Amino acid sequence: MSDLLSRVRDNIVLYGALAANLGIGIAKFVAAGITGSSSMLTEGVHSCVDSLNQVLLLYGQKRSRRAPDAAHPFGYGRELYFWAFVVAILIFAVGAGVSIYEGWLHIREPEELTDPTVNYVVIAIAFALEGTSWTLAMREFAGAKGEAGWWQAVRESKDPATFIVLFEDSAALAGLLVAGIGVWASHALGDPRLDGIASIVIGGILAAVAVLLAREAKGLLIGERADPATIARIRQMVGAHPGISTVNHVRTVHTAPDAVFVAISADFDDALTMGEAEPLVERIEAELRETFPSLKSIYIRPERHDDAPAGFAPPRSPGR
User: Fold this and answer.
1) Which of 26, 219, 264, 293 has its CA at a distance of 20 to 30 angstroms from the CA of residue 50?
2) CA–CA separation, 226 vs 254, rounded Å?
3) Where do the Cation efflux protein transmembrane domain residues begin and end (predicted)?
4) For residue 293, what are the contacts with CB-CB under 8 A and spacing of at least 6?
C-alpha cells in the first residue's frame, strides 16, 4: 500500500493532467455539439489526445520499472523514452492533423454558430482546470531543474514525463485562448470561417510542440550522457586514487531517468599487481556508488594512456 501511495505521489502531475483532460474533453465536445464551433471540436480532440498521452506515459513508467533480465541486462528504463516519442507522434499526427483538417473543412463549408455562451463557459472552466494542471507541472519541473535555466533544464532533463505534461498544458492554455478569440471573432464579425482559422492556428501550436517533444524524446531514446558535473566528479574521484596514473575517458549513458551506465578507461600504475588492482577497482566502484546512487552499472577498463582512443585522452591528473 505504501508503495502504491509513493507511486501516486511521484506521478501526481500525470494523474492531475489526466483527470483534468478527461473532464475538459467531454465538456468541449458537448459545447461543440450545441454550438457547432470548429475550434471547440478541435479542442475536444486535443483534450482526448492529451488524456491518451498521459495514459501512455503512465504505462511507460510502469514498464520501465521492470527488473533487468537476461534479454535486457541493463533493465527496461528506456521504454519510458519510447512511449514519450510515441506521445510526440500522437500530438503531431492526431492532435495537429485533426485540428488543421477540421479548420480547413470549416473554412470551405462555413457553419453558422449559435449562442456562444456555452463555449465561453466551457473555455473558462477548461482554462481553470488546465491552469491547475499546468501549475502542478510547473512546480514539479521548477523543483527538479534547480538553478539551471528553463530551456537548459528541458534539454538536460532525463525524465520526459514532467516536461511533456508541462508543454502539453502550455499548448492547451494557448489553444483555449485561440479558441476563445475564434469564437468571439466569428460572432462579432459575422464570419464563421474565422472559427476555422482558429482551429488551424491551434493545429499549428500542437505541431510545433510535437516537433519539439519528438526532438527531445529522440535524444533520450538514442542515449544521452549524464550531467557534465557528474562526469567531471567521477573523473576526479577515480584519478585521485594512488594506483591510477591517468583517467583516459569517462563515458556515460542514461538507461533510465534515474539510472546511469558508466564506462571508465584508466591507466593503472605499472607497479600494481593483479592482486592489488582488483581490490582497487572494488574500492573505486564502492565510492562511486555511494556518491552517485544513480550509477547502476560501472565498468572500469585498465588501458594504457597511449592506447586510449584519439580524442578521449585528457591531460594527466594533477600531481601525477
Assistant:
1) 219
2) 6
3) 17-221
4) none
Same domain membership, residue 235 and residue 218: no
Predicted TM-score of the model (pTM) = 0.76
Question: Are 44 and 70 found together in one domain?
Answer: yes
Cα(78)–Cα(60) distance, rounded to whole angstroms?
Answer: 9
DSSP-derived pairing of the beta strands 295-302 and 259-268: parallel
End position of a domain, from candidates 222, 257, 281: 222
Which CATH number covers residue 96?
Answer: 1.20.1510.10
Domain housing 244: 228-307
CA neighbours closer than 13 Å in the CB half-sphere of residue 194: 15
In angstroms, the CA 98 to CA 120 distance is 22
Closest listed residue to residue 168, CA positions, set 16, 26, 60: 16
pLDDT digits over 80-91, tens only? Answer: 999 999 998 888
